[in-house]
Specification:
The protein has 4 helices and 4 strands. By secondary structure, it is α+β, with helices and mostly antiparallel strands.
Length: about 90
């Protein structure tokens, strides 16, 4: 049989071919890795959660595209700190 899953994040539709009896086993509580030893990890994940490999990678941060934290100046207007000079204007 062919299972159709839709990724909950990007909407990508994936088709996964499994044996009927394996799917039946899985529905009855057999772990996916035992029920479908012939599927890739990506396919099993798609079957379980619908999440496609791309979104899965992003979710676990596999591509290292984390936003850099904003640099914060130790800037306090009342103190007259000049972020460009890097000192307090009174001291310069
Ligand atoms: Zn996706």
């Amino acid at each position: 049989m062919t299972i159709t899953t839709t990724c909950p994040f990007c909407g990508k539709i994936q088709l996964i071919r499994v044996h009927n009896e394996d799917f039946h086993d899985w529905e009855n509580g057999v772990p996916a890795q035992e029920a479908f030893p012939y599927l890739s990890e990506d396919d099993r994940e798609a079957l379980i959660s619908g999440i496609c490999p791309n979104c899965w990678d992003e979710m676990i941060g596999g591509k290292g595209e984390e936003d850099e934290p904003d640099l914060e100046w130790g800037y306090d207007e009342d103190m007259g700190f000049d972020p460009y000079l890097g000192c307090y204007t009174d001291d310069c």
